[in-house]
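help with this.
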Amino acid sequence: EILQNHAPYIIKKDGIYNMVYGHSPLRLAVSTDLHKWEPKGNLFLETEEEKDTAILFGDARDPNLLVYDGKYYIVYCSTKSVNMRVSEDFVHWSEPKTVFRTETFDPESPSLIFHNNTFYLFVCSWDGVWDQKEIVDAYQNKTYVLNSDDLLDFGTDFEKSVTTLNSHAPEVFQDEEGQWYISSVEWPNRGVSVDKLEWVEQK
């Protein structure tokens, strides 16, 4: 496989850790201990061009997974959009469906969350503005939080936005006691920062 890889996401299935990572084509590796990993090849091909292993950047990146109602939902960034595929066995995947589209910014690092009987899509923004002087400035800390009762439709641009967070490439997760957390890369500090996330009901 190509040497370039980033944005890994790991879930445990049948006692095996499954790591999905990019860039395009999105790939799969498995492990029993989270230390030694065995590459399993492409998870799927987004385009026919991805069969050319010389292409380093394709049209699928930054994968994130949600297990909901017995199915696996993978979301990932594409050109001016976030796409989704669905699988019941983590092997056979549906055709892609665009669940979010934007003409305002380039989406990065989506996170799909089910909370309080509704769905949230966290999408990081890249507007292309960077003076190329400080590398940290390339990691823009603006994340839009979109809400929808239909996980297949998060609208266009800010149509379903409920708030904006200062975070780059966030991962949203819970600990064993149910406390929610959110991570941020390269902001406000170099490396990865983690803070508690509180859900506040809008009135």
Observations:
- The chain has no helices and 15 strands.
- The CA atoms of residues 119 and 150 lie 7 Å apart.
- The two ends are 50 Å apart (CA to CA).
